[in-house]
Amino acid sequence: MTKSKEDKIKTFDFDELLTQDNNIFGLPFNAEESDIIIIPVPWDVSVSYNDGTSNAPEAIKTASLQLDLFDYEYGMPWKAGIFMEDVSDEWKAENKKQRQSAKEYIDYLSLGNDLNNRPDLKKKLEAMNASCSSLNSWVEEKASFYLNKNKIVGILGGDHSSPLGLIRALSKKHKKFSILQIDAHADLRNGYEGFVFSHASIMHHALSLDNIESLVQIGVRDIGHKEMEKIKSNPERIHTFFDCDIKNCLYKGDTWDVITENIISLLDENVYISFDIDGLEPSLCPNTGTPVPGGMAFNEFTYLLRQLTLKNKKIIGFDLCEVSSGNDDWDANVGARILFKIVAATAFTNKLI
Fold it and tell me: Would the pTM count as exceeding 0.85?
């Protein structure tokens, strides 16, 4: 006889060793029983420095089995039901194919060569952009399927281009919402290196959706001139808390509590969290594609997250991107814990626990 969700909650021993027989975090729930669905996106075609983030969903799932599932701040958020879909073999293969083309293409550009001399690479770029567009449509369709079932959806990337389809799906469900972006980069470029849907342009595309009320960026410390102009020309919609400004305020005696109060005040009632792991200190994500000195401490983020949950905000969706495990499990270990905290806060703000 198949157990119900309630029976699973009663009998699941979350203090015992969690096994890969179950789902992410070792949980026993299926998609139908879960209020929170995670869609893995094995994608890093457009990354401009180090790749490897396409392997993150599987690496984080494995690392998640080492977590203790009681959370000091949120209790037992796993009871909401958390389920991650299997990684798509089709998109994994497509990523491998297009990433090979991307490496050849980026290497050619990096030497200062003229693309007009390589019509074959021009065709490959067209194919890569078409593939990126198809991925966005796939993510949007899959996210919409679950949103129509009143599930809360998160994306586990992959590079930071991965969640655009989810953001588009949410824009069709909610009249307005804010994006809280944790990131070392502004990601406001119109495109990058010829890639229309680059990891460096995710927020440019998100802001093309009229019902994104505000974009609040935390920890930015690498930015292009045109991105800076875009921020300055949109003061009512884009609010960027540069890492150096945050640190200067702290050095002068402001508290992180006061700073988080200012951050949260700029967010709509409905909040989408977009977390690029390179928003953290590089010691927490040394293998990410584009690490940058500076950044947020783990507990600074969890404090910000906790304060957000206490301010009558609702997390309507989320993504975690740019985790790359390299030759060890450290990045995936940190990523799994960031993911669990975001999921816990999501469950809390939606009154699922």
Answer: yes
